[in-house]
Amino acid sequence: MTALEHSRRESILLTPGPVTISPGVQAALLRGLGAVEGDFPEVVRGIRRELLSAAGLDQAEYDAVLLPGSGAAALEAVIGSAIPRTGRLLVGINGESGRRIARIGLALGVDTRRLEWPAQAPLEPGQIAMILESDPAITHVAVVHCETSTGLLNPVGEIGRVAARQGRALLVDASGSLGGVPMEPADGSVQFMASSSENCLQGLPGVGFVLARRTALERCVGQARGFTYDLAAQWMAQTHNGQLRAAPPAPSLFALGQALEELREEGGARGRATRYSANTRTLLAGMRALGFEPLLQPEVRSHITTAFRYPGHPGFQYDLFSALLRKDGYALESGTRQRDGYFPVAAIGDLYPGDFERFTCAAHRVLTTMGVDWARPAATAEASDTMVRG
User: Fold this and answer.
1) Domain Aminotransferase class V spans what residues (predicted)?
2) Contacts of 134 (CB under 8 A, 6+ apart)
3) Kindly report the CA angle at 120 between 115 and 121, in degrees rounded to 5?
4) CA distances from 357 to 1, 306, 361, 364, 371 (A)
């Protein structure tokens, strides 16, 4: 085993992002090329083409804009550039990611209206249609495709058609799903899609990006509320000379290029979803055997993240559970949702069913150490548990 392969398994990340990356992506960091290298503009152009392909978007109608930062940076670029001063943003909220969009809008001084929805239920397109009919001042609608705090999938395609019928622009936060969930492009009604280089793309943090209709990007000219995240200016710079306006995150870009090549070799989002679904089936069976039940019903949860309810045992403490697992080489998300009584486990990254068999064995050892030493037979996993949904 090489040093890279050994370090890869020192800690397995079971978080929605960052994720465990492949040896190939790690090796891409060692190229040692900077943004001034002669081939760097072509690297940027190639990544932009591959991102559109990964999303299933028509390259004649859409373009990709790279940004230094995260998925949140990409969202900030869209909200700060696409929505005019006289516009109003409607945000569908049924989890942490939706709340983040609303906070970005408010921080940028955008007139923001919130549609609060239960965390265990997908957004209702009919409810959004009613709001749009009653509030003509709304110009843009923002929704999250996959709420990684719970694994919930929202019906982006249906919401996109509702927005298009009423002449509103749709912004999709695809940070938790792009590359891992086959996505219906909503008949061209998605104007902007924001995401990042990690999560299901399995790259490194450091690159945010926006996939947008070219006509929508043209309307952004002169509307930005900042410099670095001026979406139209970044688009024009990358189109003209293949460079980002600020110093680019070159190592993360080279890693992203390799990650996109690996995604294509795996069969795109549909092929990757097959592996993630197998991971989730293994995870569900093992966790149910330990007394953990999933938070969401099968028909609304994704194969990206599964949220588990705390077991009904007085000795269970999530902070201790996650800390002991970390010592065993498994990193879960920190206990930010303790008050809600559940925790997420992601099935993404360069991981396979065997990794999740070993994880649930480790979880059993930790529970025994904690004195939570009972278990019950695993429920039979239904095929619908990990259905590939778009």
Assistant:
1) 74-336
2) none
3) 55
4) 21, 15, 6, 11, 21
Distance in angstroms (rounded) separating the CA atoms of residues 116 and 43? 41
Asked whether the beta carbons of 173 and 101 are under 8 A apart, the reply is yes
d(CA 326, CA 141): 39
Structure confidence by residue, pLDDT tens digits, 33-66: 555 566 889 999 999 999 999 999 999 999 999 9
pLDDT at position 30, please? Answer: 76
Count the Cβ atoms, other than its own, within 10 Å of residue 324.
17
What the chain holds in terms of domains, given with CATH numbers, is: 3-13+268-386 (3.90.1150.10), 23-265 (3.40.640.10)
Q: Among 237, 187, 178, which residue's Cα sits nearest to residue 211?
A: 178
Closest residue by Cα to residue 193 from 226, 144, 153? 144
Report the alpha-carbon distance of residue 380 to residue 34 in Å, rounded.
Answer: 52
Task: Look up residue 226 and give its two tokens.
Answer: 């900042």
CB atoms within 10 A of CB 377: 7
Residues 226-278: tens digit of each pLDDT: 999 999 999 999 999 999 988 889 999 999 999 999 999 999 999 999 999 99
